[in-house]
Write a structure and sequence with these properties.
Layout lengths: L5 H10 L6 E7 L5 E6 L5 E9 L2 E5 L3 E3 L14 E4 L2 H12 L10 E4 L9 H12 L11 E5 L3 H10 L4 E5 L5 H7 L3 H4 L1 H15 L3 E7 L7 H11 L4 E7 L13 H13 L3 E4 L13 H10 L2
Parallel strand pairs: 4-7, 7-8, 8-9, 9-10, 10-11, 11-12
Antiparallel strand pairs: 1-2, 2-3, 3-4, 5-6
The structure holds iron/sulfur cluster.
Iron/sulfur cluster (SF4) binds next to loops.
């Protein structure tokens, strides 16, 4: 801003910064996926990803440092939750990634699927999304935002009551109470029935079909009985299933499912008229699964 006096510019430079975070690491996968590791002012680290596919330019952001939900297959939850990200730290992830785009391209979608349980930081998340979706912000349509949750029924109802148009994705990962308790420990407190009721309530109040995410783990939740149980749980609902073949995490004992298991899941769900897709794994070469880049970085710098 060369139209400001030099002394004022110097003072602004000394006293203010546009970004509170710093870029500690920037990886680009062969498929073009960008992954940033940002350093927060208190030294904590957070990850975010930019994915390009056809006309879509999608950012994936984190809401917490670490995660307290403890899903047994996940890198982010290994050390528990350290703190919620501020609304500014969430917005900065979007801006940092948006700034990587060439000037002729625009951000088209935002998914809240990075580190952390989104709805455990509901107030800051909604404040950040309001800023991103505002015409004074980035003007992104609310319907282009997907909020992912492990399934916290009270928070899902609170989000529905806010009347935003976000798409909700519930990380189900298991079709029965016992299996879900084993894979997603928070389920022991909340129960599968309450999660499904809250998802139904979100659909009723927003009119938006809920997506159920299902990370497939070889021999654990990809068996024939699991596909049948999942179809039974969802066939009477207007729902979509997103199958995610597992990205192995160093130090964790889970494996990627065989392609035949994924095919069987798709076949069984479609035969019961449940809408289903298989997520393409973007950026596998750069640890683009939540929490993996941060772990690798911390391992490299730890004595
Ligand atoms: S899968 Fe999501 S909710 Fe579960 S521990 Fe990882 S970040 Fe948390």
């Amino acid at each position: 801003m060369s139209d400001l006096p030099k002394a004022l510019r110097r003072q602004l430079e000394d006293d203010w910064s546009v970004f509170a975070t710093t870029v500690l690491h920037h990886d680009v996968a062969p498929d073009g996926t960008d992954k940033l590791l940002l350093g927060c002012p208190d030294g904590r680290k957070v990850e975010c990803v930019l994915m390009a596919e056809d006309d879509r330019r999608t950012v994936c952001v984190s809401t917490q440092v670490g995660c307290g939900m403890g899903c047994v297959f996940c890198a982010s939850g290994l050390k528990g939750v350290e703190r919620n990200l501020t609304r500014g730290e969430i917005v900065e992830q979007v801006l940092r990634l948006r700034n990587l785009l060439p000037s002729e391209e625009r951000l088209t979608n935002l998914v809240v699927m990075g580190m952390g349980e989104s709805l455990a930081n509901l107030d800051n998340l909604v404040a950040a999304l309001d800023r991103v979706c505002s015409p004074d912000g980035l003007g992104l349509g609310q319907r282009r935002v997907t909020v992912s949750t492990v399934g916290l029924p009270e928070k899902m109802r609170a989000l529905a009551a806010l009347g935003r148009q976000y798409h909700l994705a519930v990380s189900l990962h298991a079709p029965t109470e016992a299996l879900r308790n084993a894979l997603v420990p928070v389920n022991e407190k909340v129960g599968l029935g309450a999660v499904m009721d809250a998802a139904d309530a979100y659909f009723q109040s927003s009119g938006r079909q809920v997506t159920f995410e299902y990370v497939m783990l070889r021999g654990v939740n990809d068996r024939p009985e699991d596909s049948a149980a999942l179809a039974g749980l969802l066939e009477a609902r207007k729902a979509h299933v997103n199958l995610i073949p597992y990205n192995p995490v160093a130090g964790l004992p889970f494996e990627r499912p065989a392609p035949e298991s994924v095919d069987r899941f798709v076949r069984v769900l479609r035969s019961r008229r449940v809408s289903v897709s298989v997520r393409k794994t973007k950026g596998r070469e750069i640890d683009a699964a939540c929490g993996q880049l941060r772990r690798r970085f911390e391992a490299a710098v730890s004595p």
